[in-house]
Amino acid sequence: MHPDGQYCIGQDSAIYWRLTDPLQKAAEAPGWFYVPNVPPTLNGKIRRSYVLWKEYVAPLIVIEFVSGDGSEERDRTPPSLREDGTVGKFWVYEQAIRVPYYAIYEV
Q1: 24-38 as b/e, with b when 16 or more CB fall inside 10 Å?
Q2: Residues 50-101 pLDDT 10s
Q3: What gap in Å lies between CA 56 and CA 2, rounded to an integer?
Q4: Pick from 65, 61, 75, 73: which is nearest to 107 by CA?
Q5: Where are the domains of the chain?
Q6: Do the Cβ atoms of 11 and 59 come closer than 8 Å?
Q7: Residue ranges of the alpha helices (H) in the chain?
């Protein structure tokens, strides 16, 4: 599939999608994600997170494993509708990160 080995797979690691203070305000940690055409390591070390503004390549696939009733994973609330500036997970993946394939796994 990738003879050159240039891809990243993340599992329960953060995708930082916007530079904020504190940094965690703009991070999502999906259950699993796949990014083609990037090296699997960064500076010779295994990636502990994926920083979108440094990589410029969005994940191709993101999978969220449902916690609770799944409403958090389906939340499309934009930042303009919340006083604290928080956003819904679905909004982040669809509008900010622009992931082409977003799957919600619900048992």
Answers
A1: eebbbebbbbebeeb
A2: 999 888 899 999 999 998 899 999 999 988 777 776 789 999 999 999 999 9
A3: 19
A4: 65
A5: 7-105
A6: no
A7: 52-55, 89-91
The total number of residues written for the chain in this structure: 107
Q: Report the pLDDT value the prediction gives residue 9, as an integer from 0 to 100.
A: 94
Q: Identify the residue whose tokens are 């994940």.
A: 59
Tell me the average pLDDT of the chain: 89
pLDDT for 1 equals 62
Task: Please report which confidence band the pLDDT of residue 24 belongs to, taking 50, 70 and 90 as the band edges.
Answer: confident
- 104 class by beta-carbon count within 10 Å (0-12 exposed, 13-18 middle, 19+ buried): middle
Indicate if the alpha-carbon torsion angle 73, 74, 80, 83 is positive or negative. negative
Spatial separation of the C-alpha atoms in residues 35 and 17, rounded to whole Å: 14
Burial (CB count <10 Å: 0-12, 13-18, 19+), residue 74: middle
DSSP state for residue 93 in the 8-state scheme: I
